[in-house]
Amino acid sequence: PRHPDNAPRLSAELLQKSITHFNRAAQSGFDEQFDRDPSTLEPIAQAPFYAMPVSIDVPHMGAGLKTDRNKQVLRWDNTPIEGLYAAGETAPVSQFVHDRGGHLSECLVFGRHVGRIAAAMPKRGRQ
After folding, report:
1. 53, 74 in Cβ contact below 8 A?
2. How many CA atoms within 13 Å lie on the side-chain side of 18?
3. Do residues 94 and 63 lie in contact, with contact meaning Cβ atoms separated by under 8 Å?
4. Which of 54, 56, 59, 77 is the most buried (most CB within 10 A)?
């Protein structure tokens, strides 16, 4: 659920406004809002764009499940468990490193990747 403090900040209009503001900073080479290193300022030009609520009360696990390159969960003997995938904080790329929100991007990237894998899997009946 959306955190009530963040609810007004989650809209397509505000996302587009943020992208426009960032792109102006990228073009000028100066980020007045966050004083980012100019070498990190590249325009955001390729849609689709996504936004998500972030809250400080989310715990950080810093460990998690071992996965292969497709984020399929591995058994203790390193064999994949069919149909079981994990991404983000439950199976971070940088295990045991507290990276202050970096797992959120892992969730987006690997969640999409795993979603494509799952969508291509043969459909099964309920068990």
Report:
1. no
2. 11
3. no
4. 54
Structure tokens at 17: 């406004």
C-alpha distance from residue 49 to each of 25, 32, 39, 61, 98 (Å): 18, 22, 22, 27, 26
The answer to whether 41 and 34 are in contact (CB under 8 A) is: no
Per-residue pLDDT of the chain (127 residues; tens, 9 = 90+): 455 666 666 777 888 888 899 999 999 999 888 777 888 888 988 878 777 666 555 455 556 788 888 889 999 999 999 989 887 767 766 554 555 555 666 777 777 888 888 888 887 765 5
For residue 48, say if its preceding peptide bond is cis, omega within 30 degrees of 0.
yes
